[in-house]
Automatic annotation (TrEMBL):
It comes from Maledivibacter halophilus. This is Universal stress protein family protein. It comes from the Bacteria. It holds the Pfam family Usp. GO terms for molecular function: phosphorelay sensor kinase activity. GO terms for cellular component: plasma membrane. Residues 5-99 form the UspA domain.
Length: 136
């Protein structure tokens, strides 16, 4: 019997987050793991930007629930460290993230996350084209 692998899907306030959760669910079904959806916002920022907070949170909760995923929303001073800490505490082996538009490594969330990783975690990056095609 294969050992299960737990998955963490990192989402933002965008409605396209369902595509990332969907990808995470597909991965989970292949590896028989538990699906965790996480949204980390930097301290001092709004949780969901311009969206009405309660509506955005309810949307994210409903989408996560529909994919049988646990949802965690955290406010923290360091987003990458918080994601890594969550991954460590929940024994995450696979992380799903959306492709970044940022070209510089300093601004690119994925690059900053990879730089701080202290163990081997598989990264599943969902291309922007794939996210945008499904959002239409």
């Amino acid at each position: 019997m294969k050992k299960s692998k737990d998955i963490m899907v990192c989402v933002t306030q965008q409605k396209s987050c369902e595509r990332l959760i969907n990808r995470g669910a597909k991965v989970r079904n292949k590896v028989n793991g538990k699906l965790h959806v996480i949204h980390v916002v930097k301290e001092g920022w709004k949780y969901f930007g311009k969206l009405k907070e309660s509506d955005a949170l309810e949307y994210l909760f409903d989408i996560s629930k529909s994919y049988e995923a646990d949802l965690t929303v955290i406010k923290a001073p360091d987003i990458e460290e918080t994601l890594i800490d969550f991954a460590d505490k929940n024994n995450i082996q696979i992380v799903v993230m959306g492709e970044s538009l940022e070209k510089s490594a300093q601004q690119n969330m994925i690059e900053r996350f990879k730089k701080k990783l202290n163990r081997n975690i598989m990264l599943e990056i969902v291309p922007l084209e794939e996210v945008n095609e499904r959002a239409v």
